[in-house]
Specification:
Blueprint lengths: L3 H23 L5 H13 L7 H18 L7 H17 L3 H22 L5 H82 L5 H30 L2 H5 L9 H10 L3 E6 L7 H22 L4 E9 L2 E8 L11 H12 L3 E6 L5 E8 L34
Parallel strand pairs: 1-2
Antiparallel strand pairs: 2-3, 3-5, 4-5
Helix pairs in contact: 1-2, 1-4, 2-3, 3-4, 3-5, 4-5, 4-6, 5-6, 6-7, 6-10, 6-11, 9-10, 10-11
């Protein structure tokens, strides 16, 4: 739909040409029939934006009719103005520059005809320069305006594309941030709640038979709850705080796995740990290892049953830290794809590692994750450490069935 302002301007231009075409008739300077030629030219100018070549064609045909049927002295000014306006529109508004070139060639032919009709032997070159200067100037002006419009349109399209890309990246960033928040909340809350539920159930059953054990269970519930509350406060503070606060948050290292395992044991879980990783300086990898072990122990507490035993093996394999966690509980206890397994996969994927998770052939569940250390970090010598004493006799390790991968 055309802009009302541009439509009004085109109507004024056409009306002006029509007035100039009829004025010589009232002054008895041109034949009345010649006025109709000017009026047709004026009408053609109304569609010079939407149909520039069609408008230029009609104007050129009317100019040719005037040349063929009227004497040279009947060359009113409106005809020249209409031709110039039509050429300008053809150059500026045609879909391709070819339309403007065609209009320019038509005007050149018209200049030749005018020179032949009017110029003498001494003045033909002066008239040629005059018409060429005016028509060439109009053509170049229209071409300049056209190129500028194309340039501005390109800039607008590029700006719109960049804006769409920015919005797309913003949506991706928001989705990633939501996934990160969900993963952190799950890791912080799920493990603590699992321990608290187990301890609360145990304390309730032992309330009459063994009050001391019940008090210990309640103390563990309170301690675990306070730790979870502190973790939640730290997480919320990190989400609300600045970049400086984020850099100053507490760093979770592999050394804190001992406290994590101790909490699982206090909940009645038999855990055997073998750790030959040695010292590392990779905070992101250490946090990922901690969260994977935390989620694995949480799943055992929730799904494996009261008699489950856990083997946790942490070792170096070249440039990778390998986490191997197996249990003897009820196999397939995860009951499908849960948030914990999704979070583990996301953490491993961020570091370019691999994750295998699935039921074992002999029963129970196994999680095996390999997380590569940053290439710039030197390889720390691994000093084998004796396994920590197990609350239960360790069980033999089994491999994952083929095709079970997370």
């Amino acid at each position: 739909m055309r802009n009302p302002r541009s439509l009004a301007f085109d109507v004024l231009v056409a009306a002006g040409v029509a007035c100039l075409a009829t004025l010589p008739v009232f002054l008895r300077q041109t034949p009345p029939a010649l006025t109709w030629v000017g009026l047709v030219m004026a009408a053609a100018l109304l569609v010079r934006r939407s149909r520039p070549l069609w408008s230029m064609g009609v104007i050129s045909a009317m100019a040719l009719a005037q040349v063929l049927f009227w004497a040279p002295r009947h060359d009113p000014l409106p005809f020249d103005i209409a031709v110039l306006i039509g050429m300008y529109a053809a150059v500026k508004y045609s879909r391709t520059l070819r339309g403007g070139l065609i209009a320019g060639c038509v005007v050149v032919i018209g200049i030749v005809i005018e020179v032949v009709r009017h110029a003498g032997a001494d003045t033909w070159w002066q008239m040629s320069l005059f018409y060429a200067g005016i028509c060439g100037g109009v053509w170049l002006m229209a071409y300049t305006v056209r190129q500028r419009a194309i340039y501005v349109t390109g800039l607008e399209e590029r700006a719109a594309s960049l804006e769409r890309e920015r919005e797309h990246l913003a949506r991706i960033a928001v989705a990633d941030e939501r996934a990160t928040i969900a993963r952190e909340l799950h890791d912080v809350v799920a493990h603590s709640l699992a321990v608290m539920v187990v301890q609360a159930d145990g304390g309730r059953y032992a309330l009459d038979a063994d009050p001391e054990k019940s008090r210990q269970a309640l103390a563990t519930v309170a301690q675990t709850g306070r730790a979870a509350l502190e973790d939640m406060r730290r997480l919320v503070g990190l989400l609300r705080g600045s970049a400086d606060q984020a850099q100053g948050r507490r760093r979770i290292t592999l050394a804190e796995l001992d406290a994590l395992v101790a909490g699982a044991r206090s909940a009645g879980l038999a855990v055997r740990v073998t750790n030959t990783v040695g010292p590392v300086d990779a905070p992101a990898v250490e946090l990922a290892v901690y969260r994977i072990v935390q989620e694995g122990l949480t799943n055992v507490l929730r799904h494996a049953g009261p008699d489950a035993r856990v083997d946790l093996d942490l070792r170096r394999d070249g440039d990778d830290i390998v986490v191997d966690l197996t249990d003897t509980g009820r196999g397939g206890g995860l009951g499908g794809e849960g948030h914990g397994l999704t979070g583990m996969r996301e953490r491993v994927s961020v570091h370019g590692g691999t994750l295998l998770a699935g039921p074992r052939a002999a029963g129970g569940w196994q999680i095996r994750a390999a997380l590569p250390l940053p290439a710039a970090l030197p390889q720390a010598p691994a000093s084998p450490a004796p396994p920590t004493p197990a609350a239960e006799k360790p069980h033999a390790a089994d491999t994952l069935p083929a095709g079970v991968a997370a």
